[in-house]
Amino acid sequence: PKVTYVLADGSRRSLGLSVGASLMEGATGNAVPGVLGDCGGSCACATCHVYIEDARAAALPPPSEMENELLNGVAAERRPTSRLGCQVRVTAELDGLVVVLPERQT
Length: 106
Ligand code: FES
What we know:
Layout: E1 2-6, E2 12-16, H1 23-28, E3 49-51, H2 65-71, E4 82-84, E5 97-100
Parallel strand pairs: 1-5
Antiparallel strand pairs: 1-2, 3-4
Residues 24, 37-39, 41, 43-48, 84, 86 line the site of FE2/S2 (inorganic) cluster (FES).
């Protein structure tokens, strides 16, 4: 599935990701700046914060209690569209998803 990351400077990176990859892995594995993923995806660092401004976001599995708590501590503004990138996995249905990166992760 194709996923487009919109960087904080407005530039875009479109990638073909594997089904099952997390949005954090898709960014860090392809040198997309603006996502850190310090804890390696174990929902413990909140440096993989992304905004999913897509109607399909509503159909995603909702954040766990742990993710929701970590989202309260993200470095950039928390918005209703905020998710932790390591907790959202790419599916075929998400082809064409646009993910907006926050201006900072720490
Ligand atoms: Fe650490 Fe997502 S990579 S919380």
